Amino acid sequence: QVQLVESGGGLVQAGGSLRLSCAASGSTFSINTMGWYRQAPGRQRELVAVITSSGRTIYAGSVKGRFTISSLNAKDTVYLQMNSLMPEDTAVYYCNADANFNNYWGQGTQVTVSS
């Protein structure tokens, strides 16, 4: 089992920055990939960025160049630096860990970008 706890969400004006953190605990040795997803009201949950244990990163096109995912080893803590935030980035952001074909989710943290 893996437990994930996010922090760092909040309210920011358009053009501002926020940094999200996700701390993993439990069977972190089994984690292969960690990432961030988001879900806006009335929309499906979507991928924002993921990072593998080897350091490979994947970004959604809508955030490429603005967001940066980082982690020492994608097994215990992962960060999402969000710059040049836009109102359409408003959503609940969820941390995700893929561990031996099991998917784990955090409780989510709200990010609200005002125009």
Q: What would you note in describing this structure?
A:
This protein is mainly β. The protein contains no helices and 11 strands. The chain has strands at 2-7, 10-13, 18-26, 31-39, 46-52, 57-59, 67-71, 77-82, 91-99, 102-105, 109-114. The mean pLDDT is 95.
List descriptors.
single chain; 115 residues; mainly beta; 7-stranded mixed β-sheet; 4-stranded antiparallel β-sheet; 11 strands; 59% strand
In short:
The chain is mainly beta. The protein is built from no helices and eleven strands. Strands 2, 4, 5, 6, 9, 10 and 11 form a seven-stranded mixed β-sheet that branches. Strands 1-3-8-7 form a four-stranded antiparallel β-sheet, with no helix packed on it.
List the helices and strands and how they pair.
Elements: E1 2-7, E2 10-13, E3 18-26, E4 31-39, E5 46-52, E6 57-59, E7 67-71, E8 77-82, E9 91-99, E10 102-105, E11 109-114
Parallel strand pairs: 2-11
Antiparallel strand pairs: 1-3, 3-8, 4-5, 4-9, 5-6, 7-8, 9-10, 9-11
Tally of contiguous helical segments: 0
Describe the largest sheet. Answer: 7 strands, mixed
Number of strands: 11
Poorly predicted sequence stretches spanning 5 or more consecutive residues: none
Radius of gyration: 13 Å
Give the terminus-to-terminus CA distance: 40 Å
Shape: globular
Instruction: Note the run of SSEs as H and E.
Output: EEEEEEEEEEE
Counting helices, strands and paired strands, the structural category is mainly beta
Helix fraction bin = under 10%
Q: How big a fraction of the residues is strand?
A: over 45%
**What do the pLDDT scores average to?**
95
